[in-house]
Amino acid sequence: MSTTPNPDLQVLSERRGRLGLITLNRAPALNALSLGMIRELTRLLRQWENDDHIDAVLVQGAARPGKAPAFCAGGDIRFFHQAALAGDSKLEDFFTEEYALNHLIHDYPKPYIAWMDGICMGGGMGISQGASHRVVTEHSKLAMPETHIGLFPDVGGGWFLSRCAGHLGEYLALTGHVLKAADAIACGLADIELPSAALPDVIEALAAMPWLTPQSISDALRQRAATASAGSLAAQRPDIDRHFAGASIHAIEQSLVADACEWAQATLTALHKQSPLMMAVTLEQVRRARSMTLAEDLRMERDLVRHCFQLRPGLASETVEGIRALAVDKDHSPRWSPANIAEVTTEMVAPFFDSPWPAWAHPLAHLR
Fold it and tell me: Does the keyword Nuclease feature in the UniProt annotation (predicted)?
C-alpha cells in the first residue's frame, strides 16, 4: 500500500514494500523543521512503530532541482525570532516536542535510516544522530553551528558531541565547524558514505526485500558504498585536543592566542564571531553532558533553551540578536553582550543551568 504524495504537505510519507519512506518537503527552506513537521514526524514514527507491515524507516530531504541537496538545515529560526518577540507560546511547544522527537528516534525499536545528503545541521542532526544507519554522501555538510546565532548545540547535541573522541566535542560545539563525509564518520557522527545518486537504487533494493532487518539493511548499504573520501580533521586532532581541553572559554581563547600557526589563528577568528556568553554556556553544557544519559541531557537543554529566550527577554536575548543578524536584517554584525570573552563571568553562565521547573513538572519529565 502506498499513499499519494501531496506537494502541499511539508512532510511526505509512503510505504515501499516493508519500508516506510519519509520525505522532508520544504526544499526552498532547506527542509528546515517547522512545528508542524515535528508533529507529523512524531505521528508517523509512533504509527509505524506498531505497524506489523513496516520493518524500517528511511528519512530523506526533498530535492532542490538545479541546486545542491539539503537533508535538513535545522529548525525554523525565523519562526524562533518572530515567536520570541511576539510572546508566542508555540515557541515553547516547538522545543518540547522537538526534543521528545529526538529521544524517540534514539530509542526507536525499528531500523531508522537517515539519508544525510547535503546540508544536515542543528535540527537535522537531531533527527539523524539517533538513527541506526546514518548515511552521508559526497554532498554532506554536517554541523552544529548554533553558537553563530547566540544559541547552543541543542537537539541532544550535548550528548552526542560529548561522546566524540578527545575534545572534538568542544571544538565542534564552539566553532560550528562543518564536517564532510569522511570527517563525520571519523568523529562517530555518521556510519557509511554512499554516492548521492545511489538513493533510488537503495530504496528500490530495500522495498524489494521480503523482510528488513538491521543486518540486511547494512548489507544493502555496504554493497553500494562509495570509495571512502579523504578527511582533513585527523591532522588537527593533537591541536584540537590541546587547545580545547581548556578549563574555560577564556582559557581556550588564550591557548589559541599563544599559538601562531595558521589553523590556531583561523580558529580564534571563528570563535571571535560567536556569542561569548553562549560559548561559555555551550562549553559547560558539553562537559556536563558527558556524564548524563540522553534523557538527562535533553532535559538540561530544554532548561537552557527556555533561558535563552527568557533570562534576557525580547531584543535583549543573545539568540534573538543572533538570528536578527543572520536571517532577519542579514547584516551579519550581531551585537553580543558581553562583547568579549574576557568579560564573561561564571555568574552570567550559572543561571542557564537552573531549571525553571520542579523535576515532576518538567516538560520532558516523561523521557527515560
Answer: no
**The C-alpha cell that represents 359 in the structure block:** 523535576
Kindly report, residue by residue over 118-127, the tens digit of the pLDDT: 999 999 999 9
**Count of Cβ atoms closer than 10 Å to residue 230 Cβ:** 9
Helices 276-289/249-257 angle, 10° precision: 110
> In whole numbers, what is the pLDDT of the chain averaged over residues?
96
Q: Compute and round to an integer the Cα radius of gyration of the chain.
A: 20
Residue 59 β-bridge partners: 22, 114
Q: Phi-psi region for residue 357, left (φ > 0), alpha (ψ -120 to 50) or beta?
A: beta
User: Under CATH, what is the fold of the domain 11-361?
Assistant: 2-enoyl-CoA Hydratase; Chain A, domain 1 (3.90.226)
If we measure between CA atoms, which residue out of 39, 198, 5 comes closest to residue 117?
A: 198
Backbone angles phi, psi at 124, to 5 degrees: -65, -35
Q: Among 3-12, 80-89, 156-165, 300-309, which stretch is predicted with the lowest mean pLDDT?
A: 3-12
Dist. CA 29–CA 328, nearest whole Å: 14
Backbone angles phi, psi at 285, to 5 degrees: -60, -50
Q: Where are the domains of the chain?
A: 11-361
Nine-digit cell string for 102:
529526538
C-alpha cell at 74: 535545522
- What's the rounded mean pLDDT across residues 57-70? 94
Q: What are phi and psi of 177, to 5 degrees?
A: -55, 135
Single pTM value for the model = 0.95
Question: What is the model's pLDDT at position 6?
Answer: 62
